[in-house]
């Protein structure tokens, strides 16, 4: 294989690494950033108060009177199935055959635990300092090495940590403002099979790793129209990431150039979307509060994957679309120490029908949630929640040229659902 082809192979692999990172953020963006909010399907979070709402609005802590700490854990349990519907491969010979392999993959989306933390400390009568840690884009999908989807995906893992510093300012009894700055660390791992020239030869393998930091900002406001009615609005900026990685290729057999079995370095630049939230909380009675929230997510920022490496670069155009989520919920104080809540959310996918990958077999979602808060002490609240997520069936249609000169056309069907169990604690001191 000529040097230029080696470089192109590495570039394509790094592009795939970036695509998996970005696609995971869309198909597997994790809203689980508040155990209290989970119980009402994240409705009204932009208008709620306290450290537990910092992800949604930096102004949420402006009214805290005492230091406050929140910590939460969310267990994400996914049931998923991805089925082959006639995928084919055209090798360099050329001859077109079925991709072969096991035709049904189950539980490809791994279960996981999502942690989050936030704290708020009043500096004076006007200013509150906040810090938070969120994990908004974390997922792992994994197929067997002999799966029908192996040329597109074997393992895809993305881990992120969003570290945010916040200042909130109480203008007056009616208006609170907030601003935050985030550093986002991303670490990714990706692997897939590579077809050799003959279907009688064992597959080769391509493995990728990459990581890097990105930076963003957020602003927000809350308007307390009356003691019973609060409106909130916030904006979280897009974040540009540069992932530096290594691509390791092995198992390439003659007549393909065996010199392809090597490791090469490069980097890919991607952009995660902006998010705009508006919402309200209305205490219709002293015990019952209604919540509503609309979020617009700017996935059209993901216009391309730009890859650079020794000797050149590449640009891969994408077709993600902006989406709007809508959530409604209710809180009801059943007793002085026990509050019950529930909610529902419509969450469409930004992934295009044509070009959807087996790495992220995503579809439109509906969330149904229930939760509760137990005031164990005047300064200690315990939150629990359970969420059922229904995924619409989604079709996989994608054609890609592999680094070994074959063309793979994937046709499949993805189905599934998920359950999320959340718990958290809020402590003031």
From TrEMBL:
Name of the molecule in the record: Long-chain fatty acid transporter
The organism's place on the tree of life at top rank: Bacteria
Protein's UniProt keywords contain tRNA processing: no
GO cellular component, one term: cell outer membrane
Membrane topology designation: Multi-pass membrane protein
Family: Belongs to the OmpP1/FadL family.
Entry keywords, A to Z: Cell outer membrane, Membrane, Signal, Transmembrane, Transmembrane beta strand
